[in-house]
Design brief:
Strand order of the largest sheet: 6-5-4-7-10-15-16
Radius of gyration: 20 Å
CATH class of the largest domain: Alpha Beta
Largest sheet: 7 strands, mixed
Shape: globular
Bound molecules: 5-S-methyl-1-O-phosphono-5-thio-D-ribulose
Order of helices and strands: EEEHHHHHEHEHEHEEEHEEHEEEEEH
Distance between the termini: 22 Å
Structural class: alpha/beta
Helix content: 40-55%
CATH architecture of the largest domain: 3-Layer(aba) Sandwich
CATH topology of the largest domain: Rossmann fold
Number of strands: 16
């Protein structure tokens, strides 16, 4: 399995996703500031992966603290959490993971400093293992929804690289293929950062899953030609009413899918569901540097001085979503009810 991220004695080791697919390079972040930078610069990206990366960053910062007393350690811990929370705003998994580390700190705060440190490292490692298990469960829950043969379209990268392993949307595709379904994948290239071309295509080719790369503006034509049987994507945050924040361009794909009567599935772990956010209008959308749009692989593609917008995510209203696949089960409309019902389910 691709090692997206890994806890090591030296620090948190990442496959550098900015270098793929041409170079498979690993970087080790030796302190929490370096982990924060890795998240900000997208060495590691994808909602579940940045959540676990942040938890490991917190664990690293605490482990390396020289604090003698719990009160001093807590002050440092809070500052570490704040630094990691400021890296990227949209994926709720980041905040979920940091909150879980805060809850752990409180639960063990009566213990000696050395044991608090160990408990936080163990908690981050547990989140890593749980993420892979959640993806495998999601795969089992979602595989049955995909057609037994034909093509599935995906947007961005919701694969092993976006998680601790196996993937969410790509996990469902992997599980469907493992169960004998004869699937072919259309991967949207996903401008401007090219997660589809660089990462999804790389993963699927490595796995020998038949894959065709298309530029984003080809998806509609493919649907019209009846070449696509289903769409499946990941998510960065799912609001209580079922509105989905995901990579910019997802909304376009969802509207096209509805127009062509094609099911549009979202696969995400429960840590992506944010029942405190009532609907998509309340989800903060990250704006990234204009250079991501004006340049491709360092080469300028647009004139100096042109105005640029670069929202990294968009919101797909729930009415376009056929089902939300989680490790706890599959939610369908009305989502306000079905997501609330899943909230009380304990994942197996
Ligand atoms: O900007 P990115 O690459 O972090 O965005 C990633 C996505 O939008 C993914 O689709 C989402 O995080 C789900 S990953 C399982």
């Amino acid at each position: 399995m691709i090692k997206t991220l890994e806890w090591t004695d030296e620090g948190v080791r990442f496959i550098d996703q900015t270098k793929l697919p041409t170079e498979e390079v690993y970087v080790t972040c030796r302190n929490y500031e370096e982990v924060a930078d890795a998240i900000r610069t997208m060495i590691v990206r994808g909602a579940p992966a940045i959540g676990v990366a942040a938890a490991m960053g917190v664990a690293l910062g605490v482990r390396d603290s020289e604090a003698d007393h719990v009160s001093e350690l807590r002050r440092e811990f809070e500052q570490i959490c704040d630094t990691l929370a400021e890296t990227r705003p949209t994926a709720v998994n980041l905040f979920w993971a940091i909150q879980r580390m805060k809850d752990k700190f409180e639960a063990v705060s009566e213990l000696p400093v050395s044991q608090i440190k160990q408990a936080l490292v163990t908690e981050a490692q547990r989140m890593y293992v749980e993420d892979i298990a959640a993806n495998e469960a999601m795969g089992r829950n979602g595989a049955v929804l995909l057609p037994s043969s034909g093509s599935v379209l995906t947007h961005c990268n919701a694969g092993a690289l976006a998680t601790c392993g196996y993937g969410t949307a790509l996990g469902v595709i992997r599980a469907a293929v493992e169960s004998g379904k004869k699937l072919h994948v259309y991967a949207d290239e996903t401008r401007p950062f090219l997660q589809g071309a660089r990462l999804t295509a790389w993963e699927l080719v490595k796995d020998n899953i038949p894959t065709t790369l298309i530029s984003d503006n080809m998806a509609g034509a493919m649907m019209r030609q009846r070449k696509i049987g289903a769409v499946i994507v990941g998510a960065d945050r799912i609001a209580a009413n079922g509105d989905v924040a995901n990579k910019i361009g997802t909304y376009t794909v969802a509207v096209l899918a509805k127009e062509h009567g094609i099911p549009f599935y979202v696969a995400a772990p429960w840590s992506t569901v944010d029942l405190d956010t009532p609907d998509g209008t309340k989800i903060p959308i990250e704006q990234r540097a204009s250079r991501e749009v004006t340049h491709i692989a360092g080469k300028q593609m647009a004139p100096d001085g042109v105005k640029v917008e670069n929202p990294a995510f968009d919101i797909t209203p729930y009415k376009y979503v056929t089902a939300i696949i989680t490790e706890r089960g599959v939610a369908k409309a009305p989502y306000t009810e079905s997501l609330q019902n899943l909230a009380s389910v304990v994942a197996v």
